[in-house]
Each structure stands twice: as structure tokens, then as C-alpha cells.
Amino acid sequence: MSLDVAVPDPPELEETDPNEYDDADVVGDTDYKREEIEALLREGAWAEAFGAWAETTDLDEREFGIVTDLGLLRRFDFFWDSFAERVGYHAPGIPEDWKEREYHPDLDSWGTVSGINAAMTELGQTVCDVLLDEYIEWETEYEAPDDLPDFD
């Protein structure tokens, strides 16, 4: 399936500690290189990744309309995980209590909600892959702490 929509603007990345996310698995330092990543997104990485994702996503135009109405694309976070030398991300999603909160008038089933949440995860991973494969050229210099025990 293919989604035929205009490429939206890339997200503006805010200073957030990725370790605060419930699903975080980040061990690196606090230089998350958000400014550099945001610049790469604006320079074409976002458009390239979004285009690749749109070619394969299961979302239709109605579901993508929900995504844009809720501002989910603006809530993505991308950051450099220096320990793993990878781009990490946090994908926004629709909360479990969407029905009770009347989150969006066009949300009508758990299938729609889980499809949107899965698509946001897939987009986040696609963006990370494009950034790492085609845009990021830096390497992290790891320095061991001075207080490591000597095992000699």
C-alpha cells in the first residue's frame, strides 16, 4: 500500500532526557546532538525517510489525517545514543484511554489506534535508518572513567 500525501515539515527537537521515556534504553552521555540531527532532518533526511515510509505504510489518507490532526509528527524525538552509536527515537502515539478521553472524533476502533501507533514506530525507525545510513558521519569518542580498577 502507498500513502499519497505531501511531506510534512520535520519535527523540531526539544531538549528532553531520553531516559525519561517509559521505553528508553539509552546509556550514553548527555550530548544527544539534537541540533545536528534537526539540521539533517531539514536538509533532506526527513523528506527522504518520510517518502520511503509512505511507500510501504498501511495507513490510509483518513488515518493519516488523524495523525496530522493530533500533531503526532511534531512530537517525534530523535537523539544520538553515543554508547550504542545509533540514532534513538521516541515515537508519539495515541494513549490507551483514547476512547474515554474522546481523543479524536474519527478514532473508531482499537485497530485504527494500534495501526497508527505501529505506523509512527515504523516512521521513527525509518528516519533513524536514513539518518545513520546516509547523513550521519560522526563517531563517538568513548573515554573510560579514571576510577576503573586495575586487574593486573
Automatic annotation (TrEMBL):
Residues 1-23 are annotated as: Disordered. This is DUF7992 domain-containing protein. InterPro entries: DUF7992. Residues 3-152 form the DUF7992 domain. Residues 11-23 have a biased composition (Acidic residues).
